[in-house]
What we know:
Number of helices: 3
Low-confidence stretches: 4-25, 41-53
Radius of gyration: 24 Å
Structural class: alpha+beta
Largest sheet: 4 strands, antiparallel
Oligomer: single chain
Number of strands: 8
Order of helices and strands: EEHEEEHEEHE
Distance between the termini: 68 Å
Amino acid sequence: xxxxxxxxxxxxxxxxxxxxxxxxxxxxxxxxxxxxxxxxxxxxxxxxxxxxxxxxxxxxxxxxxxxxxxxxxxxxxxxxxxxxxxxxxxxxxxxxxxxxxxxxxxxxxxxxxxxxxxxxxxxxxxxxxxxxxxxxxxxxxxxxxxxxxxxxxxx
Length: 155
C-alpha cells in the first residue's frame, strides 16, 4: 500500500436488491494526493458490484425495436401484431401468474409449438398488440421458469 495511505477498506453493506460496497480511504497526510486516493479506492471495489444492464436479456428471441408504440410490426399500410410463444411448467399456479402478467396469453397443453415444449410443460401463445407490450415481455422474461420467448409463425 502506498505510504500516503493510513487505511484503505472495502466492506459489503446489506441491501435488499444487490450488495453495496462501501470503500473508505483514510490518508496519512490529509489533502495530499486525494485524486490518487479516490482512484485507488475505486479500483479496489470488487467487480461483483456491477450488475447486468437488463434482466431477461437473451430470453426474448426477437428484436423489440422492430415494433411500433402500439406493438405492431410491418409497413405503414400493413401493420400487424407479432405473436410469440414460450413454455411454462404445467400447473395452475404458473398459468395464473402468466395470465396475470399477459392478458393475451392462450395456453395450449399437449402442443409443443415450434419452440419445442417438453413433457410437463405447457405452450403459451401471446401477442404484442398493446401499448405496454415491452413491459409485458420484460416481466415474462424475468420469470425464473421462462427460458425463451420466440416469435410464433403460423402456417
